[in-house]
Every structure is written in C-alpha cells, then in structure tokens.
Amino acid sequence: xxxxxxxxxxxxxxxxxxxxxxxxxxxxxxxxxxxxxxxxxxxxxxxxxxxxxxxxxxxxxxxxxxxxxxxxxxxxxxxxxxxxxxxxxxxxxxxxxxxxxxxxxxxxxxxxxxxxxxxxxxxxxxxxxxxxxxxxxxxxxxxxxxxxxxxxxxxxxxxxxxxxxxxxxxxxxxxxxxxxxxxxxxxxxxxxxxxxxxxxxxxxxxxxxxxxxxxxxxxxxxxxxxxxxxxxxxxxxxxxxxxxxxxxxxxxxx
Length: 254
Known about the structure:
The chain is mostly helical. It folds into two domains: 1-33; 43-250, MetI-like (MetI-like fold, Orthogonal Bundle). Helix content is 84%, strand content 0%. The protein is built from ten helices and no strands. It has helices spanning 2-31, 43-55, 58-90, 92-105, 110-121, 125-149, 153-161, 166-203, 209-218, 222-250. Helix 3 packs across helix 9 (209-218) and helix 8 packs antiparallel against helix 10 (222-250). The radius of gyration is 23 Å and the shape is flat. The model has no long low-confidence stretch (mean pLDDT 86).
C-alpha cells in the first residue's frame, strides 16, 4: 500500500515539476525586471486579473461561446472526415480520384481559409464553424484512412473463411481495427479546432476567447492575453483527457 502511495506521489511530482519550474522562473524574471512589466506581467498581477475575469464572468462567458463553436465545428468536421476516410480507405478508385485533391488542400493553413469563408458565408457564425470543421476534418480523414488500411489481414482471412459478407467484415473487423487511429484523429482534430476558433475570433468576432485575447492586446494588457492563452491550454487539456477516457472505456481491448 505504501509503495503504491509513494508511486502515485512520485508520478504526481514528475507531472507538476515542469509547471512549478516555469512558475518559479517566471517569478524570478519578473522580480529582477528582465522584461518590462508592460511586456511580461508578474504571476501575482496575472493571478489578480484571473480572479477579476472570473468574478465578472468574462472569462467563463468567452470560453463557453468558443467551446460551443468548437463542438459544432468539430462534430461536423470529424463526422465528415470519418465518412470520407472510410470510403477512401475501402475504395482504391475513390482514393486515387481524391488523393491529389486532398494533398493540394490539406497543407493550406486554416487561417488562409477565413477570408474566403467570410466572403462565402458572411461574418457570422457559419464562417467560424466552417473553418473549425475544416480544422477537424483533415486529421480525422487521414487517421481514418490509415486505420482502415491497417486492418489485420489475418482477421480478414478468418472472416473470409467464416464466409462473412463485406458489410459484416467492415463492422466487425475493419472498423474495430481502425478505431484507435480514428481516436488519434479526434485528439489531433480537437487541438486544431481550438486553434481555428481562436484565429477566427481574432479576425472576425466580438465575443469568444480569441476576441478576448485580441481586445487585451489592443489595450496593452499582457496579463489578459496570457490568461486567455492559459485558459485555452487548460481547457484543451481537459477535453483531451475526456477523449482519452472515452477511448479507454470504448477500446478496452486495445
């Protein structure tokens, strides 16, 4: 029992040590004024600003708005990515037809799509959700294709021996084999989706965490900018942990 407790405490210390080290370094740099307080606020000042933004509801409101946008775009993008990925993974003809288009469009930065999407869909919610959907689409698509193609050939041979039809092989062999890769696509897609929503809100929005960061920058408030960045990181960590928890529950065999 004692060994388990010591092991847990040791792992906790390893995980928190980098964060504590960064905070100490941050405090030392601010105390010796290596950078101007107008550029790098102290931890105390940042903490006070954080409490103020929480108490007046601005931080929670901004995160809630951005999270709603991310979820909508993420669901659209990942669903589309899974469907297209399954088709491309199963059909060599479709893959040959679409692979060149995918390779041309995929490297285009998501921020480059924002002006065009605003022209097409306007400056409102549809353009923001569309760019988030694009961000979640590519990682899910590529990982789904990889997962479909990586299906265990021995299991497929067994399915053939058992005279399973194509649909049964897809449901019982191919998709279960692809699920780990698909969940990896989910995790990558969620990270990209948060980057997309922040970029979209910085360019064309009057609310959300991206707008909050931009507004703080315009007012020369680096503590507000840092709080917005840290909030995105912490919120992203929570969502990623939720996806990993869901993966462990659904894929106990993996």
